[in-house]
Design goal:
CATH class of the largest domain in chain B: Mainly Beta
Order of helices and strands of chain A: HEE
Largest sheet of chain B: 4 strands, antiparallel
Number of helices of chain B: 5
Shape of chain A: elongated
Number of helices of chain A: 1
Structural class of chain B: alpha+beta
Number of domains of chain B: 2
Radius of gyration of chain A: 24 Å
Largest interface: A-B, 22 and 25 residues
Helix content of chain B: 40-55%
CATH topology of the largest domain in chain B: PH-domain like
Radius of gyration of chain B: 23 Å
Strand order of the largest sheet of chain A: 1-2
Largest sheet of chain A: 2 strands, antiparallel
Oligomer: heterodimer
Distance between the termini of chain A: 70 Å
Chain lengths: ~55, ~180
């Protein structure tokens, strides 16, 4: 008999690692962005000409 | 995995081998995954060295966080897709037939089935440094069925399996001649 179902533990370990990384990534994204003001005006190229280069209101 | 239900095992059938790709073929992807995980950390360190304080300012900070998050989630998806492809590629040998399950990505799977008595010729190939070192290779099975050729990639001990499949095919042919 050759190598057979012994790899099942590997399947569990890989799934666990990938799920942990994905959940941890989502948690850290929420953690680092929780104080963000999503309504703020973001200026791009503020010194370019006289036009009002703004996104948002 | 319930192989008996997967292949609709017949009452007289017994499963002799369940073979997956050699585990060493997964190692390069695992290494690549680890290196790609470290890339944002290295880039963060480099930017901090070259432009101190750049990533602390709005809105770059938020954009970087969102981009890195997207990067890591994509990486997880890529790695897991590859693992599923590796893990669910299976060759099942019974005393009556040979079932080759070929998983492609997350949502595509091909199952080929060949009766042992229809096997005409089997070639085992071990080519390259690592395949020779770790003893894995391909098995090319020529058949007289609707699927003329079945190729099984990167399985362990292909030479031994070829010999055993030839013996099983000879025994099955003898059985079909006599009955």
């Amino acid at each position: 008999m050759f190598q057979t179902g012994g790899i099942t533990l590997l399947s569990f370990i890989i799934t666990f690692i990938v799920a942990t990384i994905a959940i941890y990534t989502l948690f850290l994204t929420w953690y680092f962005l929780q104080g963000t003001n999503w309504q703020q005006i973001v200026e791009i190229l503020p010194n370019w000409g006289t036009s009002n280069n703004q996104f948002g209101i | 995995m319930d192989f008996i239900r997967l292949i609709h095992k017949k009452s007289f059938e017994s499963i002799l081998h369940i073979t997956r790709r050699h585990y060493i073929t997964f190692v390069p992807i695992a290494f690549l995954f680890i290196i790609l995980i470290l890339v944002p950390l290295v880039v963060y360190w480099l930017i901090n060295q070259l432009y101190p304080g750049f990533l602390i300012n709005d809105p770059y900070y938020q954009l970087v966080i969102l981009f890195v998050s997207l990067y890591y989630l994509s990486l997880c998806l890529f790695f897991y897709s590859y693992f599923i492809d590796f893990y669910l590629d299976i060759l099942i040998v019974t005393n009556d037939r040979l079932v080759d399950i070929d998983q492609r990505g997350l949502f595509a799977r091909t199952i080929s089935e060949v009766e042992l008595f229809q096997i005409q010729d089997i070639t085992s190939e071990v080519e390259g440094f690592f395949p020779s070192l770790f003893g894995y290779g391909n098995l090319v099975i020529q058949t007289a069925s609707a699927i003329p050729k079945v190729i099984v990639h990167d399985i362990p001990n292909p030479h031994a399996l070829r010999q055993e499949l030839l013996d099983l095919a000879a025994a099955d042919k003898k059985y079909h001649r006599e009955n």
